[in-house]
Amino acid sequence: MRIIISPAKKMRTDTDTLASARLPVFLERPQP
């Protein structure tokens, strides 16, 4: 179980990091 969760958790962290890096770009755009 840990072998499956561990990579998934790391993958989740990488996704969150990318989301955090791209989030400011979306926030800078004015909302219609």
Looking at this protein, list some descriptive labels.
32 residues, mainly alpha, 1 helix, 84% helix
List the SSEs and their pairings.
Layout: H1 2-28
Could you explain how this protein is built, in words?
- This is YaaA family protein.
- It comes from Bilifractor porci.
- By secondary structure, this protein is mostly helical.
- 84% of the residues lie in helices and 0% in strands.
- The longest helix is centred in the middle third of the chain and has 27 residues.
- It is rod-shaped and about 45 Å long.
What's the short story on this structure?
This protein has 32 residues and is mostly helical. It contains one helix and no strands.
Through-space gap between termini = 45 Å
- Rg (CA only): 14 Å
Q: Outline, from the CA principal axes?
A: rod-shaped
Number of strands: 0
DSSP helix fraction: over 70%
What oligomeric state is this?
Answer: single chain
Low-confidence stretches: none
| Total DSSP helices | 1
- The average pLDDT is 64
Task: Please write the string of helix (H) and strand (E) elements.
Answer: H
Helix/strand-derived class? mainly alpha
Organism: Bilifractor porci
Protein name: YaaA family protein
